[in-house]
Amino acid sequence: MFYASDWKDYELIDTGDGDKLERWGDVVLRRPDPQIIWPIRKETGAWKQAAAHYHRSSSGGGHWEMKRELPERWVIGYDKLSFYIKPTGFKHTGLFPEQAVNWRWMMDKIAAAGRPVKVLNLFAYTGGATVACASSGAEVCHVDASKGVVQWAKENLQLSGLGSRPVRFITDDVFKFVQREQRRGNKYDAIIMDPPSYGRGPNGETWKLETNLYPFVEFCAGILTDNPLFMLINSYTTGLSPTVMHNLLAMTIGRKYGGTITCGEIGLPITSSGLFLPAGILSRWESE
Fold first, then answer.
1. Which long-range contacts (CB under 8 A, 24 or more apart) does 270-273 make?
2. What is the full DSSP assignment across 146-172?
3. What is the DSSP letter of 269?
4. Sorting pLDDT into bands at 50, 70 and 90, what band is 28?
5. Cα-flanking dihedrals φ and ψ of residue 7, to 5°?
6. What's the pTM value of the predicted model, to 2 decimals?
7. Which of 79, 136, 189, 231 could cross-link to 110 by cystine, CB 3.0-4.6 Å?
8. Is 16 helix (H, G, I), strand (E, B) or coil?
9. H-type helices in the chain, by residue range?
């Protein structure tokens, strides 16, 4: 497992009964997580300090129960990066802290490249990876279909003092954007993607990870430069094996460029128990 253990402003305090207790800066939140199938050992102490608790509904979705008044949003930092945090309508806060293990890897890869690096960040959400890559000197194209999260990403870039960096923000359907980039002949040295398990496009098109990911990755290989640096795929699809992701990269990017493939679980350390909470799969291809 690859785990993000160098946070100061984030902590996974405890877990149990389908919930995780987290500290985001000075704010403690309680949120559901389907991987947590063990009981809470003792629902006292820190559990009673949660400022808000997200309750999942049996009919889908859920709601926040506010135990005390929270600011509309607040800031947490990772290394030299800064991010706005805000409880959203579907349990999220605008940041996935386990991704810090990927941010660190990408920052190191870009800094060590010794050449200009052009990065394409797909399904880019609020821009954690975009900010990380820009901080190491990369030129970044950030693409997401949601106007709201693209604006949030712009604000995170500014918050980190990187507003003057060459970052292009695109609100668009990811698949159509990649197709246009291929027609335009635009190439990238690195591609990051965090695709959903299931989704619908603006015209009713359906996306199912198990069906559509392979042809999409194969298509993305066509917009890499002749000397690409890396490709990173994050997956939160339950039950998808790291070996499956390894095979996918081997049959697409690896077949074309050689290089090294690394896949595995990604997770967070749990302070109370010393155990680790799995939080998806990372799949990395990198040049030799």
1. 270/12, 270/13, 270/14, 270/15, 271/11, 271/12, 271/13, 271/14, 272/13, 272/14, 272/15, 272/41, 272/46, 273/14, 273/15
2. -HHHHHHHHHHHHHTT-TTS-EEEEES
3. E
4. very high
5. -75, 145
6. 0.94
7. 136
8. strand
9. 100-113, 128-135, 147-159, 174-184, 209-220, 242-249, 255-257
